[in-house]
Amino acid sequence: CIFYGFISYFQSLAYYGLGHINIELRAFWVAYATAFVIAVLQALILRFDIIPARGGRKQYLPRCEFLGPLAILPAAVGMSLDFQVQYDPTAIALCWIFVFIAYILQLI
Fold first, then answer.
1. 98 Cβ contact list (under 8 Å, min separation 6)
2. What is the per-residue pLDDT across 2-61, written as a single tens digit (0 to 9) for each?
3. Which alpha helices (DSSP H) does the chain contain, by range?
């Protein structure tokens, strides 16, 4: 229970940092760096806490626990496309594609 609390906190911290830095500072590379560092932190916590199955037991979705931290990266790209200066319908379509990729990675 505490593990899921920490993972949820780190995930929300990454999304909060991404949104706050992009909106408040307009510093996209700083937002990418912050989200990447927190995603690495979350992946390390997942790696050190989840023990792989031993013996002849087959895992159905091996290493899928790392898709949660990876969901931050398409969200960052989608947010960068959304905050561009000029209106471009292609960029809006790509933004939504990256948003749905982030949703799918988060749900798996």
1. 74, 75, 77, 78, 81
2. 888 888 898 899 999 888 988 888 888 898 899 899 999 988 888 888 766 676 677 777
3. 2-24, 28-49, 67-70, 72-82, 89-107
